[in-house]
Amino acid sequence: MIDTSRILCIGAGYVGGPTMAVVAAKCPHIRVDVVDINEARIAAWNSAELPIYEPGLDEVVRAARGRNLFFSTDIAGGIRDADIIFVSVNTPTKTFGQGAGYAADLQHWEKTARQILAHATRDKIVVEKSTLPVRTAQAMERILDGNPAGVRFDVVSNPEFLAEGSAIADLERPDRVLIGGHDTPAGRAARRIIADIYATWVPRERIIESNLWSAELSKLTANAFLAQRISSINSISALCEVTGADVDEVAYAIGTDSRVGPRFLKASVGFGGSCFKKDILNLVYICRSHGLGEVADYWESVVAINEWQQSRFVRNMLASMFNTVAGKRIALFGFAFKADTGDTRESAAIGVARQLLAERAVVVITDPKALGSVREELPEEGDRIECEIDPYRAARGAHAIAVMTEWRIYRDLDYARIFASMEKPAFVFDGRNILDHKRLHEIGFNVYALGKAPLRHV
Ligand code: UDX
Ligand code: ADP
User: Fold this and answer.
1) Residue with the nearest Cα to atom 17 of ligand 1?
2) Gap from CA of 51 to ligand 2 centroid (Å)
3) Which residue, by CA, sits nearest to atom 5 of ligand 2?
4) Model confidence over 30-68: pLDDT tens digits?
5) Ligand nearest 337 Cα, by number?
6) Could you tell me the pLDDT band of residue 142, with boundaries at 50, 70 and 90?
7) Residues 9, 240, 275, 287: which is the catalytic one?
8) CA distance 355 to 352
9) pLDDT higher than threshold 80 for residue 383
10) How many angstroms from the chain centroid is the CA of residue 121?
11) Which ligand is closest to the CA of 112, given by its number?
């Protein structure tokens, strides 16, 4: 008999932390323990300064922490005491051996499975929250089935679809919750127990049940489709620039077709984040290992276009700034991979900064939340980069501003004041198409926006 009054979550990262905070807030009758091997991270979850920045997270954590939400490093105790175990440890891209650069690195995942096996004394439901290659549950079951104590483990896949910056809203009002389990009486029962937890606050019709492999594959496919939309519009942005079409107008025109829909059609300097590239390359690897070369190539091109878009952006900067940026101060507005997050993983700004530095530019980075990661993301660049929290100071004496992240504050700056403080001719490269280009041109800037004709004075 599974005890449904407790939940353990192994892995207190971007997924585990916010997800469990919302579960605890919505289900005061359930005790939720979140454990992690990283002591500093757990200490941060127990402090006033949470380890991740996410709008609304502080309030949710404050409401439940110490009541029915607990953060600790006691992994063994947690496994012993809870029958429902969510696993949300990191599964980065492998950097070594077979599949390096593509396949998911499952070492943390497997270690967790072995920890569960070592400490479980009663039957458990193990819930895959981390994004995993399809059929990982089978590997997990093989490890868990090896237990001498006769403990029964049911593995369920419950992929997370939250997006950073809107994680709390996504968790509180999800489009859907997906729960995959085996199509056996035990599998269906396990699935139902997890569905009942979500049903406390999510309407039943939004809770989808499926077989295990469909749930695992749906997560990778959902991210691949979202990324593909961005690469599609980004590829068209290049064509807009040479034909006089405007990419925002094209996106609006196609997005009003209800079959296409308006979201995820915003041209950008490139998608970033911890998921899209990793998940697509994982999908590519799985397809190749099943002999599906054409399918693999198709999805890999989504990543290739994304990288090309970043390089194209820098090439355009160079071409418009008289083919040299050496010694020129360039202010990057934004370093996070998108607005409303301090996360910089795979941010397009990293690649752009690196390419500008290779051209010997003086790069100044400003960002309201992400400056702390600049040195970590660009370790080889050392003191060649300046970090400046104030965008006005970042732009002072600069030849160009390049918008990397769509932070709202960048729309509302006093650009006349900024223009006055810059070297002339002054350039703006809008990698997010968020600024008022006509107004900037009137102020005196040479304005280059993605997928639009440039507005020049020189
Ligand atoms: C993504 C998925 O959206 C989420 O469902 C999944 O669980 C994890 O991966 P996330 O990486 O947090 O979430 O951010 P998302 O909002 O999807 O943005 C990813 C990147 O695409 C960002 O760099 C964003 O700026 C970029 N983007 C998004 C565009 O360039 N254009 C768009 O139209 C939308
Ligand atoms: P995600 O974005 O998938 O949540 P993160 O890297 O933010 O990924 O978080 C994953 C967390 O899992 C990290 O805090 C890491 O310390 C933790 N972790 C990794 N392996 C283990 C393990 N064996 N036991 C407990 N926690 C682990």
Assistant:
1) 163
2) 13
3) 13
4) 999 999 999 999 999 999 999 988 999 999 999 999 999
5) 1
6) confident
7) 275
8) 5
9) no
10) 36
11) 2
Angle at 441 between CA 402 and CA 425, to 5 degrees: 65
Could you identify the atom of ligand 2 that is nearest to the CA of residue 16? Answer: 4
Check pLDDT > 80 for residue 382.
no
Which residue, chain included where needed, has tokens 């409401």? 63
Q: Please, what's the b/e burial string for 239-276 (b: 16 or more CB within 10 A of its CB; e: otherwise)?
A: ebbeeebbbbebbeebbeeeeeeeebbbbbbbbbbbbb
- Residues enclosing ligand 2, CB less than 6 A? 10-16, 36-38, 41, 75, 88-90, 108, 111-112, 130, 274
* Distance between CA atoms of residues 319 and 324, nearest Å: 8
- The conformation of residue 384, written as its DSSP 8-state character, comes to G
What's the pLDDT score for residue 1?
A: 87
Quote the CA–CA distance of 21 and 26 in Å, as a whole number. Answer: 9
Distances (CA, A) of 43 to 23, 72, 203: 20, 8, 35
Set out the domains of the chain in order of their start, with CATH numbers. 6-202 (3.40.50.720), 213-458 (3.40.50.720)
The three-state secondary structure class of 349 is helix
Contact 144, 113 (CB under 8 A): yes
CB 407 less than 6 A from any atom of ligand 1:
no
Q: Report if pTM > 0.85.
A: yes
**Dihedral sign, CA of 149, 154, 159, 160?**
negative
Residue nearest to atom 6 of ligand 1 (CA): 161
Q: pLDDT per residue over 231-282, tens digit each?
A: 999 999 999 999 999 999 999 999 999 999 999 999 999 999 999 999 999 9
Confidence of residue 338 (pLDDT cuts 50, 70, 90): very high
382, 409 contact by CB (below 8 A): no
pLDDT of residue 159: 96
Mean pLDDT of the chain: 96
